[in-house]
Amino acid sequence: MYMDLLRKLVVVMDSRTNYHNYRDILKNTVAPAVPYLGVFLKDLNSISEGNSDYIRGGLINMHKRRQIFVKLMELKMMQSTKYNFKELEHVQHALRCWLNSNAEV
Question: Are 11 and 58 in contact (CB under 8 A)?
């Protein structure tokens, strides 16, 4: 069971294809979502390092700025909807007990 899940995750998170499978899944995911930030940071780094800050004539490279904006908006959209968690008293109690026991350490 866990090995099957691991195999699926390996296929989804294959970096050799620039995370193509992961990107497809993420594109079709309804917010809220917790994306793998490593892919977003990689994209931002690629945009930043792969494009000059200025174009000919000393003008600001607005295409680069637009790409960064789009990438940041993708991340923000995933945070736009709140999670609808149900309150589970036994879970809260267990967490409180754990936090109280570790607060003294």
Answer: no
Phi, psi of 104, rounded to the nearest 5 degrees: -85, -15
Residue 81 makes CB contacts below 8 A (sequence gap 6+) with 30, 31, 32
The Cβ of residue 43 has, within 10 Å, a number of other Cβ atoms equal to: 19
The total number of residues shown for the chain amounts to: 105
Q: Average of pLDDT values for 38-45? A: 96
Taking only the tens place, the pLDDT of each residue in 67-76 is 999 999 999 9
Two tokens, residue 27: 């594109």
Q: Cα separation of 93 and 7, whole Å?
A: 35
Q: For residue 63, what is the enclosing H or E element?
A: helix 62-78
Q: What is the pTM of this model?
A: 0.73
